[in-house]
Amino acid sequence: MPIARAECGGCNSRMDQQVSQEDRPRGTDALVQFDSSDQMVATLGAHDELLRVITGAYPNVELHARGNDLRVSGEPTQAHKALRVISEARTLAGNGTRISAQTIEQLVRMLESSDAPDAQSVLGMKILSGRGKAIRAKTVNQKSYVDAIDENTVIFGIGPAGTGKTYLAMAKAVAALQAKEVSRIILTRPAVEAGEKLGFLPGTLTDKIDPYLRPLYDALHDMIEPDSMPRLLAAGTIEVAPLAYMRGRTLNDAFIILDEAQNTTPEQMKMFLTRLGFGSKIVITGDITQIDLPGDTKSGLRVVTEILEGVDDIAFCELDATDVVRHRLVGSIVSAYERWTARQDPNFNRSKARARRSAGTVQATANNMISKRQGPGPAAQEHSA
């Protein structure tokens, strides 16, 4: 198909199938045709608002919409990338994914990699439908993390604030409960105080611990109907408790999440991991750059990456600033702090490297699974959050 007329009405998700390598240098003027105005709005937003996001990413490309047609022209390499982003966005929209500015930005980042997986397999995968919205992975690393939760019994999600590590783990827990894969969900986190002891705080025990557990409740309310929450909590189907309450227990048939694990001591981490019972899964999340432990106390999350690296059925997944799904500035802030921490702490990069090695293994496994599901490569056949 000549690149001067890229008919996207029946296109597959990869623009590479429409544009051969030898045609790419001449690909400065392509026409994308949509089947209807509704399809065009679903892909490009109302009043073509998402076109500005694409041209912001590819400044040497011009996009002109007229009727149900979109003309893409400009520097060949950037024009080809813009066409791929539009093609992937169209496929996602056709499968029910709401396309936002954030989706376009995620596609741009994802497609920068030469070995990027199919966007539909990442952004189109629905983890949970709760309270009228679908929860999905939104980056390649998040997809690898979700796959690791499916494939392993103990999973560590390590990354900065805003990368979705706890939220995605809770979505998987609720999905497992709904599918009757487990009979209960247990959510826990250490209560690390800034110079205050729980015993000196006013109120009942619940009043004292609730502020430390509130982020977990907030995430649950996003996924479960409010009317169901009191019943599930009262029945013990969902339990939210401080880490100290895990001691001496054996947790069978449960999906267990330990949040803020960077604030555990090595002894607490060992205690928690050895609570694992039959039919259970443990997800441990934390950020090694935000340790609140007093003095020279070692973080159990840092130590455990050295102790359990390479153990079968345990996965370490690292998320980074590119996976931040909050305000765009949060990613920049996280990156700046990581650079500063690396300069101050020589052990910081070594800890991240260990997590990255394990995460790389998980990523390779996930990509292999995607390839097997999709069959032959693009030359023969090719077919996210």
Structure, explained:
- This protein has 13 helices and eleven strands.
- Mean pLDDT is 79; it is low at 1-25 and 361-385.
- The protein has helices at 37-44, 49-57, 76-94, 101-111, 119-123, 140-151, 165-178, 205-223, 229-234, 266-273, 300-307, 328-344, 346-374; strands at 29-33, 61-66, 69-74, 126-130, 133-136, 154-158, 184-189, 238-242, 254-258, 281-286, 314-318.
- The chain folds into two domains: 15-116, K Homology domain, type 1 (Ribosomal Protein S8, Chain: A, domain 1); 127-372, P-loop containing nucleotide triphosphate hydrolases (Rossmann fold), CATH 3.40.50.300.
- Helix 1 (37-44) crosses helix 3, helix 2 (49-57) runs parallel beside helix 4 and helix 10 (266-273) packs across helix 11.
- The strands form three sheets. The chain has a six-stranded parallel β-sheet.
- The radius of gyration is 23 Å and the shape is globular.
- Helix content is 43%, strand content 15%.
- The chain is of the alpha/beta class.
